């Protein structure tokens, strides 16, 4: 059997939106924060407070050093993640991660800079400023909200034509033309969840002891991260494959009319994907890798390959192949494929 190679149209259509949302917007946010801070130069102490401990401010620097060290450093990080998304972000989930992170980090840095400097206006000594718990809380949740919002509005992948043919040796479950079937599994990493939740408890205890209540946003974020990255529901039905976190986002849906075939693989997370969670590998695969072992791998149109580590992957693959075969048999020639749904 010969397999045609996809020309992957639509591979670079995302670069305009990726640049606008992943580079221009974060740099504008950083520039706005730096501009506001610089406009207060004559109202601020010669050495402003930049770090707070349990007894108040314990770190100081000049305004220039603060802006160069934080804003300029963040701008370099933004440029690096934008370059990754620009050149390697053919799959929307990768672009969402890079663009959402850029906007979130830029918002956090700008908001913290402005929020911690505002109460120092009119002071002659930065050590006289009080706590900045409220400013930290607003900055953290504002950064999370804006980063998530931009990731969600990022344009979806362009539809890709089906040029690859399904392999003959993949598993299949015999289905009649109108037979219904659904396969659902929960997959999670107890190790990842325990480590993240333990970190949240330790941070919460430290924040409570220090009385810096604004930093309670950090353990809350860690709990949400645990639910979003280490616990997933995998569903195979007549519409295709759906993988969503227990939190509800991230979520990925591969429509049945874009599925070429599905197989079972065995992965080693660190070797194959460089870590755990929503990952991408050097060979172009993306997916949810939360433990080693049995993995469902789905080839879809445009040369895309998605994986998810889940038990009973063989049944999921066989059912997906049956649905994909049945859809191809019933689809009129020339019918365009739908677009991958992600959030």
DSSP summary, beta strand count: 12
Strand order of the largest sheet: 3-4-5-6-12
Domain count, please report it. Answer: 3
Instruction: Round the mean pLDDT to the nearest integer and report it.
Output: 81
Structural class: alpha+beta
H-E string: HEEHHHEHHEEEEHEEEEHE
Gap between N and C termini, in Å? 36 Å
pLDDT under 50 segments (min length 5)?
1-11, 336-343
Share of helical residues = 40-55%
Question: Which descriptors would you attach to this protein?
Answer:
5-stranded antiparallel sheet; 8 helices; disordered N terminus; transmembrane
Molecular structure report:
With 343 residues, this protein is of the alpha+beta class. It has three domains: 15-153; 161-186 and 232-343, no CATH class; 190-229. Helix content is 45%, strand content 20%. The strands form three sheets. It has a five-stranded antiparallel β-sheet with strand order 3-4-5-6-12. The protein has a five-stranded mixed β-sheet with strand order 7-10-11-9-8. It has a two-stranded antiparallel sheet with strand order 1-2. Strand 4 and strand 5 form a beta hairpin. Helix 1 runs antiparallel to helix 2, helix 2 (63-88) runs antiparallel to helix 3 and helix 5 runs antiparallel to helix 6.
């Amino acid at each position: 059997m010969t397999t045609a190679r996809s020309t992957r149209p639509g591979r670079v259509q995302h670069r305009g939106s990726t640049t606008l949302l992943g580079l221009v917007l974060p740099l504008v946010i950083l520039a706005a924060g730096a501009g506001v801070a610089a406009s207060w130069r004559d109202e601020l102490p010669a050495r402003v407070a930049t770090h707070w401990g349990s007894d108040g401010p314990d770190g100081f620097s000049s305004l220039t050093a603060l802006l160069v060290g934080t804003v300029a450093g963040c701008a370099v990080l933004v440029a690096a993640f934008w370059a990754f998304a620009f050149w390697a972000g053919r799959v929307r989930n990768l672009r969402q991660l890079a663009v959402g992170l850029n906007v979130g980090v830029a918002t956090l840095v700008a908001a913290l800079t402005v929020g911690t400097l505002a109460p120092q206006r009119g002071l002659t000594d930065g050590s006289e400023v009080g706590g900045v718990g409220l400013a930290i809380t607003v900055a953290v949740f504002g950064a999370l909200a804006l980063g998530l919002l931009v990731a969600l509005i990022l344009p979806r992948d362009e539809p890709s034509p089906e040029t690859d043919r399904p392999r003959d040796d993949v598993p299949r479950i015999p289905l009649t033309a109108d037979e219904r079937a659904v396969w659902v599994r929960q997959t999670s990493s107890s190790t990842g969840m325990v480590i993240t939740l333990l970190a949240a408890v330790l941070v919460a205890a430290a924040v409570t002891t220090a009385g810096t209540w604004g930093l309670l946003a950090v353990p809350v974020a860690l709990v949400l991260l645990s639910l979003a990255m280490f616990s997933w529901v995998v569903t195979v039905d007549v519409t295709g494959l759906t993988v969503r976190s227990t939190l509800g986002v991230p979520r990925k849906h591969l429509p049945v009319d874009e599925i070429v075939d599905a197989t079972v693989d065995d992965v080693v997370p660190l070797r194959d994907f460089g870590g755990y969670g929503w990952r991408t590998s050097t060979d172009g695969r993306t997916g949810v890798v939360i433990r080693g072992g049995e993995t469902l791998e789905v080839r879809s149109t445009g040369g895309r390959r998605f994986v998810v580590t889940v038990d009973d992957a063989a049944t999921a693959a066989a059912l997906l192949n049956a649905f994909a075969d049945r859809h191809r048999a019933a689809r009129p020639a020339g019918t365009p494929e739908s677009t991958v749904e992600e959030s």
